[in-house]
Design a protein that fits this description.
Blueprint lengths: L7 H9 L27 H24 L1 H14 L5 E7 L5 E7 L6 H8 L20 H9 L6 H7 L3 E3 L4 E2 H4 L15 E3 L12 H14 L2 H29 L1
Parallel strand pairs: 3-5
Antiparallel strand pairs: 1-2, 1-4
Helix pairs in contact: 2-6
Length: about 250
């Protein structure tokens, strides 16, 4: 298995960090009194902005689902042909108010990938709450391309329609990652998680947990529609650059 070793600190912190979710049922320990939604308080102006944000989320996600329907079909066929199993993967994540929801993605891994993760923990290259390894053996060939292009996250537009996610916000963490969050970072659950957010604009893809937590909390503390607009613009720019990079690599290898 060709995976690089993890850092000792990430393994030690994973073993000793306090858990946010119950190990038996994976239910959030935090309640509404612990993490409050920012939409429920603040000024009238901020409440109007949150309402506008929700209206924008509904409008854009619905339009994108309609326009991108042919692309959805192509990707679903590619995933189904490349690996047996469902084409849509439902990953349990922690969202607003520390409540769980099923985050939708095009499946990029082989069946039984989650059961393999404990065996790969020692190879984790990220710090603390983030799990990431290069050349993950569980990822399929089609899945690797979907991840590189970001197209694996298109089904999350359905989560946006359901109100479980927003177009912009802190990325919703898997249960395993969320259980390792420092207490100070729990405030990230006071806003609706997003498809895109401050993490996506960070050029260091292997940033440690502390920096990623700071980015999330800065978004929570300074949120506005203008901030969301900047994140969207930056995400589009990085996405276009990433697609051109992928095309160049394919041409060089072809």
């Amino acid at each position: 298995m060709n995976v690089p070793p993890s850092t000792p600190s990430s393994r030690a912190r994973a073993a000793t960090a306090p858990r946010l979710v119950d190990a038996a049922e994976a239910r959030p320990i935090l309640g509404r009194s612990d993490v409050r939604s920012r939409a429920g308080g603040g000024t009238v102006g901020s409440a109007i902005q949150f309402m506008a944000k929700r209206l924008i989320d509904l409008t854009i996600s619905l339009l994108l689902l309609i326009v991108l329907a042919p692309l959805f079909v192509v990707i679903m066929v590619a995933v189904w042909v490349s690996s047996p199993g469902p084409v849509i993967y439902r990953s349990m994540r922690i969202g607003l108010g520390a409540h769980r929801f099923g985050c939708l993605k095009f499946r990029t891994m082989r069946q039984g990938a989650e059961a393999m993760q404990p065996q790969l923990e020692q190879h984790n290259q990220a710090e603390g709450a983030v799990f990431k390894i290069e050349n993950d053996p569980r990822v399929t060939a089609v899945g690797r391309w979907l991840r590189s292009s970001g197209l694996d996250e298109l089904p999350q537009l359905i989560n946006v329609l359901r109100g479980q996610m927003s177009l912009v916000g802190p990325r919703p963490l898997p249960l395993r990652d969320c259980s390792l969050l420092p207490v100070a970072a729990w405030r990230r659950h006071s806003v609706v998680p997003g498809i895109s957010g401050p993490w996506q604009l960070n050029p260091n893809r292997h940033a440690d947990e502390q920096l990623l937590a700071q980015l999330d909390l800065a978004y929570v503390d300074h949120w506005s529609l203008l901030v969301d607009l900047r994140v969207v613009a930056g995400t589009v720019w990085f996405g276009v650059r990433r697609l051109f990079t992928i095309d160049s690599e394919l041409a060089a290898n072809g």
